[in-house]
Design goal:
Helix content: 25-40%
Number of strands: 12
Low-confidence stretches: 272-279
Mean pLDDT: 79
Largest sheet: 5 strands, parallel
Strand order of the largest sheet: 10-7-6-11-12
Strand content: 15-25%
Structural class: alpha/beta
């Protein structure tokens, strides 16, 4: 019979945990965590672990049931609040080959319920108090408890990253994505990449809106657009993300931060010189990432 001393964290951790980014809106996150019975989510930014958010963190920012705010007002406020403003930034980590006893020691000393598992700078799992209890149950030999086959609810379903630009052509990929997601039980993450907005000035050069105000406005508009698109993916869990910058670069960064199983994009049909000169965002993404890219072509082939 194995002993706790001999056990390694890799044997009991939950691999490939669900993660969020600092820009993920808090709105809806608490409901998702409750639905999936999650209590801890690692926060990733450009492939780096930058924090952890817990159900306790979220409860501190959720309005009291006695609030006078309407449902719409609460939703508006929470959509402007991001994970980066709420998360715990000081994160304790463990390595997969460390003894399980080390995870137990840290949890007891720091009074925490989970530890991200990091190997060579890469997040590979999460070890929670439930995982530790399963390990103890296996040593105690509790009858009728299938610890080896226990449901690891913090393991993430596969995610399909779908970049959109607001044009009907970019949405040509949605029917195929919907069918694939429903067949594989995958989530879909819709991404909009916008150009970084600058100040808005009147004719007399007065500043009407500063860059940060304009950024917030654009982000709200793009999230509203993505929500409308997401409603067309019936029966599929949908996440939303907005980034600012050069489209191909930001798509690759989002893929590195969230680890999707696939990137699905629409690509305009081009031929001849036009294809050589213009290329496409989809083709640049395909060259810059190791994540599989599914391209769905749309539009008529140009004669040039």
């Amino acid at each position: 019979m194995p002993t706790i001393i001999a056990m390694r964290i890799r044997e009991w951790m939950t691999p490939s945990p669900i993660t969020v980014t600092p820009t993920t809106p808090v709105a809806g996150l608490h409901e998702m965590m409750s639905l999936r019975r999650l209590r801890h989510l690692p926060v990733m930014d450009d492939g780096r672990l930058v924090g952890i958010i817990t159900d306790r963190d979220l409860r501190t920012v959720l309005p009291s049931p006695a609030t006078s705010f309407s449902v719409g007002e609460i939703r508006f406020l929470l959509e402007r609040l991001t994970v980066g403003e709420v998360m715990t930034r000081r994160v304790l980590i463990v390595e997969p080959e460390a003894p399980l006893a080390e995870a137990v020691r840290q949890m007891l000393e720091q009074k925490i319920g989970a530890l991200p598992v990091v190997e060579h700078g890469r997040l590979v799992g999460i070890i929670t108090e439930i995982d530790v209890l399963r390990a103890f149950a296996s040593v105690l030999g509790i009858p009728g408890l299938d610890v080896a086959g226990a449901d690891r609810r913090e393991a993430a379903p596969p995610t399909i990253l779908v970049p959109l630009d607001g044009a009907a052509g970019s949405e040509a990929v949605l029917p195929a994505v919907g069918e694939l997601a429903r067949a594989e039980g995958a989530r879909v993450r819709l991404l909009f990449v916008a150009q970084p907005p600058g100040e808005v000035r009147a004719n007399d050069d007065r500043v009407i809106a500063y860059a940060d105000q304009e950024t917030a406005r654009v982000e709200a508009e793009m999230l509203a657009y993505l929500r409308r698109v997401g409603e067309r993916l019936y029966g599929v869990e949908v996440d939303l993300a907005v980034r600012f910058g050069e489209p191909a670069d930001e798509i690759v960064k989002e893929a590195a931060a969230t680890g999707p199983a696939m990137i699905a994009m629409a690509s305009h049909r081009r031929s001849g010189l036009e294809r050589i000169v213009k290329g496409s965002v989809a083709e640049r993404v395909e060259r810059a990432t190791r994540v599989p890219v599914m391209l769905v072509q749309h539009g008529e082939t140009s004669a040039t």
